[in-house]
Design a protein that fits this description.
Helix content: 40-55%
Order of helices and strands: HHEEEEHEE
Structural class: alpha+beta
Number of domains: 2
Length: about 150
C-alpha cells in the first residue's frame, strides 16, 4: 500500500529541488553577465565594444525573464499543501489514471518514485486543464487516449 502522504511530500520536494537547480543556473548566468559587463572595456574598435555590451545586456534580459518565471513557479509551489485532499482534482492533487500518474503542480516533467512514474504538470497544461475538477471514476479524453481516473489524493 502506498503511503499517500509520503508520496505527495516526495513529489513536492522533487519539484522544489528541480526549481532550485534552475534558479541556481540562472543566478550563475546573471552573476557572470554582471562580471563581464564590469570587465568590458572600451576598445579601439568601438562598434565591437558596443556589440559585446549589447549581447551581454540581451543575455541579462533573457536570464531576468527566466528568473521571473521561476519566481512565479515558486509562488505556485508554496500554495501546495502536503496534506491529502481527495477529489475533485485541484492544484496539489496526485492523480492516478489508467494511462499515467500526474502531480498537478508545476511543469517539471517525469519524477520516478517507488510508487511508479509521475508527471509533474502545471494546471495550465492541456492535460492539467482536462483533469482539473474531475473526480475518481471520471474519464478524460486526451489526444487519442481515454484516461480513467482511478485515484486522487
Amino acid at each position: 500500500m502506498i503511503d499517500k502522504q509520503k508520496l505527495k511530500i516526495h513529489l513536492l520536494e522533487r519539484c522544489v529541488v528541480q526549481l532550485s537547480t534552475r534558479r541556481a543556473a540562472v543566478d550563475n548566468i546573471l552573476a557572470n553577465v554582471a562580471i563581464s559587463l564590469k570587465e568590458e572595456t572600451k576598445s579601439s574598435a568601438g562598434d565591437k565594444h558596443e556589440t559585446g555590451r549589447a549581447m551581454l545586456q540581451l543575455e541579462r534580459e533573457n536570464a531576468g525573464k527566466q528568473l521571473a518565471e521561476i519566481e512565479k513557479l515558486e509562488a505556485i509551489l508554496q500554495r501546495i499543501s502536503s496534506d491529502i485532499s481527495p477529489d475533485p482534482v485541484h492544484l496539489g492533487s496526485v492523480v492516478m489514471t489508467s494511462q499515467a500518474n500526474y502531480f498537478i503542480s508545476i511543469p517539471v516533467g517525469e519524477i520516478k518514485t517507488e510508487a511508479g512514474v509521475f508527471y509533474a504538470i502545471g494546471i495550465g497544461s492541456p492535460i492539467g486543464q482536462l483533469l482539473l475538477g474531475k473526480r475518481e471514476g471520471d474519464e478524460v479524453r486526451f489526444r487519442e487516449s481515454v484516461l480513467n481516473i482511478t485515484n486522487i489524493y
